[in-house]
Structure formats: structure tokens, C-alpha cells
Amino acid sequence: MKPYIAQIRSNLRLMGRDRTVLFFNFFFPLMFFVIFAVAFGGSKNPGGMAQVVNMVLVLGVLGSGFFGAGMRAVQDRETNILRRFKVAPVGPAPIIVASMVAGLVSFIPIVFVVLAVGHIWARMPLPERTIDFILFVCLGLLAFRAVGMIIAAVVNSAQEGQIVTQILYLPMLFLSGATFPLQFFPHWLQIFSQFIPATYLFQGMQSMFLARGSLVSNWLPMTGLIVTLVVSLFIGVKLFRWEKEEKIAGSAKLWILGVLAPFLLMGLYQVKSEKNLQQDKILARNMRRNETVLFQNARIFVGDGRVIVNGAVLIRGGKIAQVFDPAPAETKSFNATVVDASGKTLLPGLIDMHVHLNMPGGVYRNVSDYAKKGTQRRELAAYLYSGVTAVRSTGDALDTSLALRQAVNSGEYLGAQLFACGPMFTTKGGHGTEYAQVLPQSMRQTFLAETVRTPKSPEEARVQVDSLKNNGVNCIKAVLDAGTAGALFNRMDTRVYDAIVQQAKADGLPSATHTGDLRDVQEAIAAATSTIEYGSMRAAIPAALFEQIRRNGIAYNPALSAAEAARDVQRHQMTLLGRSLVQQVAPKSLLDSTQAILGNAGGADESNGVDFSRALDIAEANLLTAWKAGDTLIAGSDAGHLLVIHGPTVQHELELWVQAGIPTGVALRAATFNAAQALHASAHIGSIQPGRDATLIMVEGNPLEDISNLERVTYVMFRGEHVDRSELFSQDAND
Questions:
Q1: Which is more confident, 468 or 254?
Q2: Eight-state DSSP code of residue 412
Q3: What is the rounded distance in angstroms from the CA atom of residue 299 to the CA atom of residue 341?
């Protein structure tokens, strides 16, 4: 042990006297740190500062490994310094270990310095597990210094060492994500980067900074670094050479590839799974969501009905940090990117409380178009593009819905936040099962298994609700509507329905009930459902029933868009397809085929014996009665049904409300604050208040004076990230 201690002491003394070491270990990294921090606007973006910190540390690790250890050992051999140790005598192991310990001791201070500067200067949050982060960096440093010693062992001259070092150093520097984000690279180059050891070092550090990762969650890169360290030490000792006259065969350089074999295996795994690429995408999104932004001189619709005429909103760390009334006169002290909102209105992101993602809202000529990959992901992107930042899916396939929700919540995909009810509860032959009849026989059972639940008893209903709860749904939907003449369905047993609603309440889940007539509404009130969808479009609902709805704390969604769209289909009118935002977000093939198939003139279609124009009038009258009774109103469009195209659904729904006589402020509250409460999500979305998610939209003019301004969206922020709307529909194409 004495040779190791003596050699370490000697190396540390020499390092302390070497100004070159001090420059490259301290001043050089700090210089790069300041330059890149300013270039990336780190002081306004704590997430960007984390990128800078990790970039500087990776540069330091690579420099310490390849130049501080590898090239220094080559130079010591070339100048016959190592020959003197040989006659001491000292074995190769103490030389190598002392070099690694000295490098570690010299590097640790700069880790603390850059963390402290980033935290103080840019308010950069420190890694949640700071000790894990420092240990991971230290492991990386030791592993790369060990690789550097392998390079020193297999090259025959300083010139050869420079060539081999640069061949390894430059790809690790520029293709690992440390200097240029992997998202900037074409897909094939992103795949190539998965074979580069520095990629795992950088992503592990980013994970600990931006995703609260730990050593355990980064076990794969940690294992690769440990194996590399151990193997490199063993081979380095075996191949160590004391004198420049000792030559080694060119084939010995293959030991470098052997040492890097763990990363070759990890790269092959990543080629198949691409998990690292998904993780990199998520980390990059988390970084963008940490920018500090100040919306200045905005008209602010808070969500709960209050309006700030000229205010400001400060965003920090993906959350609303402060709301100002009036706007502050001085903005530099916030150290934020300032967005001038003069003449515009800032609102909480809009929420559509009733959508069906498995239905496109139109018809395709080719049946295969209905099964296109990524259709539902694109629909969520269309909502976000339109300023609808959250939707409640009421009757979609369970596994698909949960996967979509996870993709958005994790940051892998950028789309509207999804609240999933999963399959709808109905009965055999009930409303919701009829859609299976248009499918081929081979597909019907699969469709029904994924999209509906048909319990035969209250006990079975409770079990099925519990099962959905355990699967992680956000809500439960049940159908009472038995249809009308020309389109009749079996009606659910009231005892089964009551069990569904009560079990949902016991499980802490809100429930949504699709009703069709007065009897349905009465039973929904008696069961104390959370929301009533549609109400009745066949007869006026008495004010007394709406009084009961208010007293029971039930929210009411009239779904006027569904009635209007059914009326237009009946009349072969396609004007809804011509709205500007619909044209921007809907697939052109869907619009063209829907226009061609449904737009054929020929007068109104009364084949079902239903007058949807009258149904719309009834629905509007019921909405007015509900408002006058003081009911909690929520806005849901029933998107996915014919002519209700996914995207700017809520905006048109609210336009119909205002046309029916609902005050604009009441309508806006229904699509923000009230909707968030009905989703049990008001602590995060639905209002512009400190502590809420920074999920906001900005529109031209004043929608309180002209509701159509809701469609003139100029800015969308989702969880603190400024959404590049032009890139939303190319996300899958870039994967």
C-alpha cells in the first residue's frame, strides 16, 4: 500500500506546482462555462444552465481522461520520466492508480464551482440527488482516465497518441449530445451516437438534473462505466510500458475496442429499443420547460371569472410564479424573456370535456385510412395547435388511451394533456355498441372489448370500475341514453348504473353520464354523477331539475356542437369544414373525402325521423335554463362525430353558447376553471394563479367582447414550454 500512497502524494505535489494543470482544470472550464452560459441565455433558463453545466463537466471529463491521463503518460514515457520510476522500483499499478486519484482530486473542485455558480447566477435548481450526481461524475472521470491510460499503453509515440486520442475524443465531444443536442441530428446519426460512451455519461448527468434521476435509475450507463473502469485498469497494468524503446504491435490497439465493448453492446440494445433517444427527447423538453418568461401588458382572463385589464404573468420552472395587477413598470430585474402581450388576451389553456379520439370527425374514401399509425397522437397535436391544451376522452380503447397519456405526460410527445375515461359503460345492444356493427366480423369483438364495458350485475359493474381504477383511468363514463325512434338502443339497468357511479365515487374518480331524455337526467341526478353529458335534446328540462343538478354539485355539458353537426350532416351542409383553424389542423385527405361524400346536395335527410335542427334548439334552451339556475357549466364538443373535427372544438362550442345567450365570461369559465374542477385537476390547470402549471394561450384582441377571437391564437405555452406550432405535425416524421 505504501507505494500507492507515496505515488499519490508525489502526483498531487507535482500537480499543485504545475500551472498548466491549474489552467486546464480550473480557468479553462470556467471560461467555457461563462461563454456558453451567456450564449444559451442560461440566466433566463435554469434548464439551459443545466445543459451548460453538464456540457462543461463532460468536456472536463473527456479532457482529463484523454489528455490529462493518456497524453501525459505518453509524454512521461517519451521524456524518460517513467524509466526513473522503473528503477525505484515501482510497479505499473501505483503509477496508474496515482494518476487517476490525482485527476479526481483536481477535478472535484470544478464540479462544485460550476454547480454553485449556476445555482446562484441562474437560480438553477441543484440535482435533487446531488450526491448521486457527483458520484456519477466521479465514476465517469475515473472510467475515462482509465481509457486514457489504455491509449498511452498501446501507442508508440506522442504523434501516434495524438491521432488515436483525436479519433476517440472528437466524436465523443460532438456526437454525445454534450455540445450539440441529439435532436439536431438526423435519425441515423442519433442511432450512431448510442455507441459512443460519452453519450451515456452526458445523458446520465442530464437525467439527474432534469428528471430527478438517481444512480439506480441510471444503472445501465453506470454499469457500463464500471465495467470499462475495471477492464481498463486490468489491461492498463498488463500493457504498461516504461520506455519509449519498448514497442508494441499495431494489433494491440484493438484493446481499445475491447475496453469499449460494453458500450458496443449497449448501442446494439439501443438500436433495437431506442429508449435512450426517447429519454433524450424528454430531457430536451424538460430543459425547454425551465425557461423564465414574463408576459407583459396582457389582458388576463384568470379563469374563475376575474379579468386583469393590464397585467403580467411570470413563468419560472414550468409553473406560474407570479401574477401582477397592474403590470410592473420595470422588467429587467426578473431576468426573463419578455413577451409583449399588448392588445392581446392571456387565458388558461382551453379544455374540451368530451372527445372520442378513435373517431376522426369525418369519413375517408379508403377504409385503411382509419387505421393509420399515429392518428390519435396527431389529434392531440391538433388540439394543442388550436389552444385546446387538455381533453377528456370519453369512450376510447383503454390501452391506447393510457399509452397516449403517458407519451404526453412524460414529454416524449407534444400534444394536449389527455384525461382518459377508458371504455364506456353501457349494456349489450346499448348505445356505444352500434359502432361495432359497421366493422368486419373479425374486428367486432376486439373493438367491443377495447371500447365498452357491459356488466350484467351491480357486482360485476363494481369489479369492472375497480379494474379501470387500477389501470389508472382519470374518470368513468356511463351511458343511459336509449335513443329515439329510428335509432333505439337497449337501456342499462338502473341498479347497474347506480353501482357504476357509486363505485367510481368510492374510488375517487369523477363520473360522466351520457343522457338522452328527462328520465335519464333524473336517474343521473339521483345517482349523483359528476357530470351530465347532453342532458336532453328531445324535450325541455324543467328548471326544477336544473335546481337539483345545482344542489347536487353536478356539472352540465350541453354538447351543442354535436347537435349542430348532426343537423348539418342532415342538410348536407359542410360549412364547419371551412373554418380556418380546422383547415390548418385537419388532414387534407379527411376534409376532401368528407366534403365529397357527405356534401352531396339533395335536401335534408330525415331517414332516422329525427329533426336535429329542433334538437339543437332544445339543447340551447336547456343550456340557458341551466345557466339561470346557477348550474356549473362545462364545455365538451363530442369531437370525433361527423363534422366535429379534432382541434379547435371548444372555440366553436363556446361560439354556439354565446349565440344562444350565454355571457362570454360564463362560457370562458366553463372551458377553463369549471372544466379543471370537474377533472379534479384545478390545482394544476384551468386558471392563471401562482403555483399552477404554465399552460396558457394568448389570442388576438378581447374574446370577452368577440368570442371568435378565441380562434386567433398567437401563442401557446404548455407546462412552461413555448410550443412551436409549426413543428407539431412533424413529430412522428422526425422519429
A1: 468
A2: S
A3: 8
